[in-house]
Amino acid sequence: MKDTFKHQGMRQQLVRILESKGITNANVLNAIGKIPRHLFMDSGFLDHAYQDKAFPIAADQTISQPYTVAFQSELMKISAGDNVLEIGTGSGYQTAVLCELGARVYSIERQQELFKKTSKFLSKIGYRAKQLIFGDGYKGLPEQAPFDSIIVTAGAPFVPKPLLSQLKQDGGRLVIPVGDKAQIMTLFVRKGPKEFEKYEYGEFKFVPLLENKN
Ligand code: SAH
């Protein structure tokens, strides 16, 4: 599969759409302008890769809408070298954005099929996460904590405590969509051992964060 001038042109249009919807972080926009999203999709959806929409991938999951990816990435306020955890690797698109932003990325996926497929694919196209993990994101990744930021890319029925406790104490950020049918995008900023600031950013729709498979 190739990245053609046509794809690159469509990608720049997508970047402009995201700007018009209020995304301002230049690094995030650059990352989206650079990553060949069409390669992350099933072939049946290739023509739609640069629309600002979510699409189905394997195992009944979805590749998140570019606006959502950009919005969450912006809230994480990533600096190069940050230690970052993603829950829900899925297609690996968000993982690639985090790599492009210069983060050291750990990403957990609960479906083995997706874990295997995406692990192979990401290294094939040259995105090297620090580690992709087959496991349960509700537990986080205590052995690599603390994290500068954590992103959850599935709808969480509640905020898992381990994720809060694995944030850096001086300003660690958790970006998590919380709710059942629809989710409120929520940001927690850690200010001390037990102090968190909480901000809410309106409604988004995600596939559910599922419990207890691994
Ligand atoms: N970041 C992905 C979004 C994929 S959708 C992308 O850009 O494509 C959400 C993903 O979360 C799915 O792949 C789903 O299998 C995974 N998931 C659901 N519950 C999980 C859990 N408890 N731990 C880890 N991953 C989980």
Structural class: alpha/beta
Named once each, the bound ligands are: S-adenosyl-L-homocysteine
Record field, number of beta strands? 9
List SSEs in N-to-C order: HHEEHEHEHEEHEEE
Measured between the Cα atoms of the first and last residue, the distance is 33 Å
**Helical amount:** 25-40%
Biggest sheet strand line-up? 5-4-3-6-7-8-9
3D architecture notes:
The longest helix is centred in the N-terminal third of the chain and has 16 residues, at 5-20. The chain is α/β, with parallel strands linked by helices and 214 residues long. It starts with a helix and ends in a 10-residue tail after the last strand. It is built from 6 helices and 9 strands. Helix 1 (5-20) packs antiparallel against helix 2 (26-34). A hairpin with a 5-residue loop joins strand 1 and strand 2. The strands form 2 sheets. The protein has a 7-stranded mixed beta sheet with strand order 5-4-3-6-7-8-9. Bound molecules: S-adenosyl-L-homocysteine. The site of S-adenosyl-L-homocysteine (SAH) has 23 residues, from strand 2, helix 4 and strand 4.
List keywords for this structure.
single chain; 214 residues; alpha/beta; two-stranded antiparallel sheet; 6 helices; 29% helix; globular; binds S-adenosyl-L-homocysteine
In short:
This protein is an alpha/beta fold and 214 residues long.
Secondary-structure blueprint of this entry?
Blueprint: H1 5-20, H2 26-34, E1 55-56, E2 62-63, H3 66-76, E3 83-87, H4 93-100, E4 104-109, H5 112-124, E5 131-134, E6 149-152, H6 161-165, E7 173-178, E8 183-190, E9 196-204
Bound molecules: S-adenosyl-L-homocysteine.
